[in-house]
Amino acid sequence: MNLPxxxxxxxxxxxxxxxxAEGRSAAFGMLDENDAVLITRIKKTFSDYKCEFNKLSxxxxxxxxxxxxxxxxxxxxxxxxxxxxxxxxxxxxxxxxDAPVVNLLNSIFLEAISFKASDIHIESASGGTxxxxxxxxxxxxxxxxxxxxxxxxxxxxxxLANLNVLENRRPQDGHIDVITDQYSLDVRISIVPTIWGExxxxxxxxxxxxxxxxxxxxxxxxxxxxxxxxxxxxxxxILVTGPTGSGKTTTLAAILKELNTRKVKIxxxxxxxxxxxxxxxxxxxxxxxxxxxxxxxxxxxxxxPDIIMxxxxxxxxxxxxxxxxxLTGHLVFATLHTNNAMEAVYRLQNMGIPSYMAATVLxxxxxxxxxxxxxxxxxxxxCTCCNQTGYKGRTVIAEFIPITPELSDLITxxxxxxxxxxxxxxxxxxxxxxxxxxxxxxxxTTKAEVIRELGC
Length: 456
Description:
Layout: E1 5-6, H1 8-14, E2 16-22, E3 25-30, H2 36-45, E4 50-55, H3 58-71, E5 80-81, H4 100-114, E6 119-125, E7 128-135, E8 138-145, H5 147-160, E9 172-179, E10 184-194, E11 197-206, H6 221-228, E12 236-241, H7 248-259, E13 266-270, E14 281-284, H8 293-300, E15 307-310, H9 316-327, E16 331-336, H10 343-350, H11 355-361, E17 362-374, E18 391-402, H12 405-412, H13 417-426, H14 432-441, H15 447-454
Parallel strand pairs: 1-5, 3-4, 12-16, 12-17, 13-14, 13-15, 15-16
Antiparallel strand pairs: 2-3, 6-7, 6-11, 7-8, 9-10, 10-11, 17-18
Helix pairs in contact: 3-4, 4-5, 8-9, 11-12
């Protein structure tokens, strides 16, 4: 007896998928478990089987459908239901009529969305090409495809991003839009040649995401209260520091959302614009057109802003302009790549900002990281909900350093890091590690996760 089969196109069009088939029993997952016509049709087609029907959420269905497309790129179906009825709107529009390579690429995006991945890595190696997703900050293996199919996926991405399809010897960057029923994604593409082919990284930015409220970011109660009172700071420079992927942009977007009123003009310069906030003038950096952070920052002084957000201080010119803006009565927010809050002071000094000037403009330095939260369903033992990792979602750990007059004097005097740390310890500042310990004690995360992120 042949096992039951449903084509990927039929599954997408009808909202049904095979969950399992063993012996004479078959389990089906359905978006609408009350679709009596479809249930009757399935039972009639697979009359040799005892059919069971289960309700699936849209996310669960999308994930299983994406895997089905990855495994089977044809629209034919033997020993099952042929796709001969009019298709209603599928999970990705018109997927049934697309070519196999398009179905494969669609399946990759669907699976990434289902996992809430931030990046997709398509990496060529000697034995084939691997597909991995960055989920909660860590890469997880998903599937392997042949070099031939990987080349087709690469060509398809280049076409969509208006890149040179024939060029595989030089790096290329671009972006495409991916639209599904629930998501509008801005996908940033980076392609570099390797000895085995190409390495492709797709950064997924969800335009549908709205900035979180300050009290939902995961900061401690004390830190959240400080952020909620940040509007009392009239001018100066506020820095949010941490490595790439530590949630700096999310924190700044939540702060700007809190400060966004009809009484102030807020301008942001970002690369890329991750959160779209109504009422804020957001400018996208475009280095190919000469629209760099420092060039744009010079221009926006004429736009009469009250609050300025700089996506990243990358160079001396941008640092000097940020300080100038803070000195001339603006409230300036910016990000900087440092390991902890106090290192931000020395980073500015290394960029050529005099100690006395840094002390004059700095109002607050925040250092933060993102750590994974224990899965609420299994408590780190691993389950299907967390993809057997034991963790689901992330939260923030942070240290806040308000620049007090005493600390400002230490900065002006050029005191070394050890003196700064002694001052912070004497005045009971909470460090990143101490904030993480509170998260462990509350059962939010684990000691192993904190060691993985902080190394201590």
